[in-house]
Write a structure and sequence with these properties.
The protein is an alpha+beta fold and 454 residues long. Helices cover 35% and strands 23% of the residues. The strands form three sheets. It has an eight-stranded mixed β-sheet.
């Protein structure tokens, strides 16, 4: 029988957190009993009492939502159990009812089967959560270690000192060993000359871009001056016309006096800043979330991290643009801690002044990215708390910003990007002839320069 790991150190948490942990643990154990072959990595996010319908048949029980599955268990000793991966759901639709309880949610599967769920007390919450999990599979990354050649040598010396039975060769062990005595002609040598040519072209393009940008900046300043000259000319023409009209005319003189009182003078000329980048829009780092409002309603949204502040925005649909949600805007200095809650995918952002600034509660398949951004932008001044039973992950590295938020659901399960060293592929290169390793190192150096130039 499967058994989940239980957190042994619960003393640092209050009674309410421990109680929630025990409740969630019992729910997870219940699912393992009902679904013996269910992945042990899956944990209950939320469950709802409801009625399951298939054709003319109806069954009363509970709907269970985990990271990658939708499940149903019938009440009592009956044996009806349904297990539906989100990746097999084609479309969802709802039929409105009275106060949500009589609403019905229809789910079309890739197999052509249509099932439905009704009689929810929290219908719209369940519908919103299912829609989010369909589009955003939980995704975690392992930050690769920056290993130096000396470290590779120390690993190699360690493996040589161990008996062959003392360590597991793994999938790549035999393959790596077979490469140790290969000559250079057995390897595909990197084309360093091509990399150098690409870097040279990139430098030329970069220089041309700088020259072009300088010319455009000068042209923009000249156009600004011309626009001001035209405005001054127009102002002087109108003023001269009033002077002419006032000669020998009482009405013209009155008009001149009134115009002088209401005239909007141009003032001293101030040239706009036309330096490239001075007027560029702020670049945000966006994370798709479900905002949990004070009344516990869920709303699809985006958590936008800017340079000085972050806020929640409505999730765009169709031609609509991101729109900032009211009362969900914060500065980084306000943040005291970020908490990965007992309930999976739930995260709280808490603030120093809790009375004036209530905690931000949200659900996200990308908690790692939220914690990472808050850690980086507060310069690690924010406290990170993992409540018992939560999945722990790495954070506080800019490397994570350069990787996609959307995981690959086609493979199923939680998506994890493991560091290359964990597969011992590096040993294949370490034991290559120096002619190959030197070329690889040179090519890597050129690629790094190319990346900085681009």
């Amino acid at each position: 029988a499967k058994a989940r790991r239980m957190d042994s150190d619960l003393s640092q948490f209050d009674a309410q957190v421990i109680k929630k942990y025990e409740i969630m643990s019992s729910k997870n154990e219940f699912l393992l009993q009902k679904f013996p072959n269910f992945p042990i990595s899956e944990t209950v996010i939320q469950n709802y009492r409801c009625t399951y319908k298939q054709g003319e048949s109806s069954f009363h029980g509970k709907l269970w939502l985990t990271q990658n599955y939708l499940l149903f268990t019938e009440n009592g000793d009956n044996t009806l159990r349904k297990q539906i991966p989100y990746m097999e759901i084609k479309t969802t639709a709802i039929s409105e009812g009275f106060l949500g309880y009589t609403c019905e949610m229809f789910i079309d599967l890739d197999s052509g089967l249509t099932v439905s769920f009704t009689h929810f007390y929290h219908f719209y919450e369940a519908y919103t959560l299912i829609g989010y999990l369909m589009d955003h599979s939980p995704c975690y990354y392992h930050i690769p270690a920056k290993k130096s050649p000396q470290k590779h040598q120390s690993i190699d010396s360690y493996t040589k000192s161990q008996p062959k039975d003392a360590m597991s060769e793994g999938r790549w062990g035999t393959l790596a060993s077979s490469f140790k005595e290969n000559t250079a002609d057995k390897y595909e040598k990197p084309d360093v000359k091509l990399a150098e040519k690409c870097l040279e072209m990139a430098d030329e393009i970069y220089t041309m871009g700088l020259d072009t940008r300088g010319v455009l900046e000068d042209d923009a300043r000249k156009l600004d001056r011309m626009e001001r000259d035209l405005a001054e000319t127009e102002y002087n023409v109108k003023k001269g016309k009033r002077e002419v009209d006032a000669i020998g005319s009482v009405g013209g003189q009155v008009k001149k006096v009134v115009a002088g009182l209401t005239d909007k003078k141009l003032g001293e000329y101030q040239a706009p800043d036309r330096t490239a980048g001075s007027q560029e829009a702020e670049v945000y780092y966006d994370v798709p979330i479900l905002v949990k409002h004070p009344n516990c309603d869920l709303e699809p949204g985006v958590l936008r991290f800017g340079e000085k502040e972050f806020y929640c925005a409505t999730y765009p649909s169709g031609n609509q643009k991101l729109k900032q949600m009211r009362n969900y805007k914060y500065t980084y200095s306000q943040v005291s801690s970020v908490v990965a809650r007992v309930r999976p995918l739930h995260v709280d952002v808490r603030f120093w002044n809790e009375k004036e600034t209530p905690r931000l509660r949200c659900i996200s398949s990308h908690i790692q990215m939220i914690v990472n951004e808050l850690t980086l932008r507060t310069k690690s001044r924010v406290a990170v708390v993992f409540e018992p039973g939560t999945r722990k992950f790495e954070y506080g590295d800019e490397w994570l910003r350069n990787h996609p938020l959307q995981s690959n659901r086609e493979k199923g399960g939680e998506s994890c990007l493991f560091e290359r060293q964990s597969m011992r592929m590096t040993e294949v290169i370490v034991h290559a002839p120096s002619e190959i390793t030197d070329a690889v190192a040179e090519q890597d150096e050129i690629v790094e320069k190319l990346q900085k130039t681009v």
